[in-house]
Design brief:
heterodimer; A: 283 residues; alpha/beta; Elongation Factor Tu (Ef-tu), domain 3; Rossmann fold; 2 domains; 7-stranded mixed beta sheet; 6-stranded antiparallel β-barrel; 31% strand; B: 336 residues; TIM Barrel; 4-stranded antiparallel beta sheet; 9 helices
Chain lengths: 283, 336
């Protein structure tokens, strides 16, 4: 449905952060079309044969191994996820790509990523790709405590990591909301992925940046950087996660309202322009 | 020994001659008598999971389906509510989409062409919070129903009713029957009333709704659910209450199907948590004349075909040629 299912053999099980399970599947026919921002649907029958399409963000693609790493999203019921019981060698159905890639403008030379434990999996592949493309990447990470942070080794060395922890056990004591302002004028583009609090902080910063761009102290229009032909991505994109769904934009389970119309995260998302839109709570 | 062999050979020969070829089994059913709705297959795609029509193309083979019920439409646009709208729960999922739709006119404009070309019957699922609103909605739909090949209308009794302070229509048999009366007076098209396993006075509703002009009762609606979020600081779906689908609702759905079927003789479209051909057979055994498939289609678009094949084999194995041979086979006491 939407795309033809592909058999994926589980090669490895790991963690992106404590409690954030990552699964690496061998699926050579699937990976060529995967881009940062895409997700896969994972399908594994439950007892009785009932099957759901569970959304899993693509966190890494390994062209040499012919594999794709996806991250399991924590279930809202907190129960034992049927996918967490998979073992190396198991084969399940993978469907994808789900959604659209994150748009990075050709002129972008500096990229700000804003994440927390939930959002890291959605932007890890983007950090990899941007670093490979020679773009300067800074990732602001938020966590309750140092133990909740993803290992720095999961990111390319050239990515600058700036951390905020609620308890101050590492980095800035507080939240990334306190830090974003420092990077707003530096970044050509920004992407936020995570909880509602960091999305709100990023959106607020983006709106302030837009206001600052439009006016100068004298009240005259400000000069803005020249965009390359074809550039169309907004300064800030928010990645909105959803758990399950039809994958074809039919069920309404992942629809968010924007000023530009409704966005179905499984079709037009997961990246949404939250500064030009009236979010319905996804952001 | 030779005589024994000959006897066995004769027996086998007799069995072979009486065996029914599953391909000869007639799956067609006709629901209702006053305004009969004929389905070439007793397999219904439930309103909601597969959208309004355009999205379905190329996803499931509608030739394997008897009736496609379009996602709910209302007179005016309805907003689906905040995210999250859809979460996984133990044994299934909970959804809170609030019958989101852009209004009947826009849905018809955008999707009507796909209904006309569908290789199965098409029904519209109508969402209204008052009797007056439903009458207006049916009038709006009827203007173009023939042109678009709409064969039946489904009255959704699992949505809030203004007169019941926002409780579902199905929580009051009297209010439900009042709505059905209105619908019957507004159209000559076959009518289906959809309820869930939570419907009040279900046996009475089944019986009296047939008298009021319903042609089939769809006992396939989603019961309500509630679950706190992980932090237990709020509900899992933003709307608070959601609706449940999946295996967790199946036993309650089967109980409701059995109750409605055994008490009324009404043609029942049964659904709720059907995820396999075996589940579909259970639903017929509980008294359904047709089965309604929902969220299981997301991951298993071939389910309608598999259910059809399974039904044919099950009928043939009984030495029968008509699908109705399966209806209600599990009803009644085992000790009779």
């Amino acid at each position: 449905m939407g795309s033809t299912p592909v058999a994926g053999e589980l090669l490895a099980i790991g963690e992106l952060a404590p409690g954030r399970i990552a699964l690496e599947f061998r699926a050579p026919t699937l990976i060529a079309g995967l881009r940062p921002g895409h997700a896969l649907h994972l399908v594994r029958p439950e007892s009785g044969g009932y099957r759901l399409r569970r959304v899993a963000p693509v966190s890494r693609v390994d062209l040499i191994r012919g594999s794709v790493e996806v991250s399991l999203q924590p279930r809202v019921d907190g129960g034992q996820d049927v996918l967490a019981g998979l073992r190396v060698g198991d084969v399940i159905e993978l469907i994808g790509p789900i959604g659209q890639p994150i748009l990075i403008n050709k002129a972008t030379m500096s990229l700000l990523l804003i994440t927390d434990g939930e959002g890291f999996a959605w932007v890890r592949a983007l950090a990899d790709a941007a670093a490979r493309a020679g773009i300067s990447v800074t990732m602001l990470q938020q966590a309750d405590t140092a133990a909740d942070l993803p290992p720095a080794s999961l990111l390319p060395d050239v990515v600058e990591i700036v951390v905020a922890t609620t308890d101050g056990s590492i980095g800035h004591r507080g939240t990334v909301a306190d830090l974003i302002a420092e990077y707003v004028s530096w970044a050509d583009q920004a992407v936020v992925a995570g909880g509602a609090d960091i999305r709100a902080a990023a959106t607020s910063a983006a709106l302030q940046r837009r206001t600052a761009d439009r006016t100068t102290a004298s009240g005259k229009p400000a000069r803005t950087r020249t965009a390359a032909a074809g550039d169309r991505a907004p300064w800030l994109q928010a990645l909105l996660a959803h758990e399950i769904g039809c994958g074809i934009g039919a069920c309404g389970g992942c629809t968010v309202a924007t000023r530009a119309g409704q966005v179905r995260l499984c079709r037009e998302g997961p990246a949404v322009d939250v500064t030009g839109s009236a979010s319905n709570g996804g952001a | 020994m030779a005589a024994l062999r000959a006897s066995r050979a004769t027996q086998e020969s007799t069995q072979v001659s009486e065996r029914i070829n599953p391909l000869t089994v007639d799956l067609a059913v006709t629901l209702g008598t006053e305004h009969p709705l004929r389905l070439e297959r007793p397999i219904v795609v439930a309103s909601g999971p597969l959208g309004f029509g355009n999205e379905v193309g190329g996803v499931i083979d509608l030739r394997e389906v008897g009736l496609f019920v379009v996602r709910g439409i209302s007179l005016r646009p309805r907003f689906g509510g905040l995210m999250p709208r859809l979460v996984e729960v133990p044994g299934g999922l909970m959804h809170a989409v609030n019958r989101e739709n852009p209004g009947a006119d826009e849905v018809i404009d955008r999707h009507g062409v796909s209904w006309r070309s569908a290789p199965c019957a098409v029904a519209l699922s109508l969402v209204a919070s008052s009797v007056r609103e439903l009458a207006q909605l049916i009038a709006r739909v009827e203007r173009r129903a023939d042109e678009l090949g709409i064969e039946a209308l489904e009255i959704d009794l699992t949505v809030p009713c203004d007169g019941l302070e926002g409780a579902r229509w199905e929580s009051s048999a009297d209010e439900s029957l009042r709505l059905i009366d209105t619908a019957r007076g507004a159209t000559d098209r076959p009518l289906i009333a959809k309820v869930s396993s939570e419907a009040s006075e279900l046996r009475r509703l089944a019986s009296e709704s047939i008298d009021a002009g319903i042609d089939a009762l769809s006992v396939s609606g989603s019961p309500r659910g509630f679950l706190p979020d992980r932090a237990r600081r709020g509900p899992a779906v933003a709307a608070g209450f959601g609706e449940l689908s999946g295996p967790l609702v199946r036993p309650a759905a089967l109980a409701a199907i059995a109750e409605a079927a055994s008490g009324s003789g009404a043609p029942i479209i049964g659904g709720g948590g059907i995820g396999s051909p075996a589940d579909a057979l259970d639903t017929f055994a509980a008294g359904a004349s047709a089965v309604s498939l929902g969220t299981a289609l997301w991951a298993d678009p071939r389910l309608p075909g598999a259910v059809g094949d399974s039904l044919r084999r099950a009928v043939a194995s009984r030495g029968e040629t008509n699908i109705l041979a399966l209806r209600g086979s599990a009803l009644g006491s085992r000790h009779e």
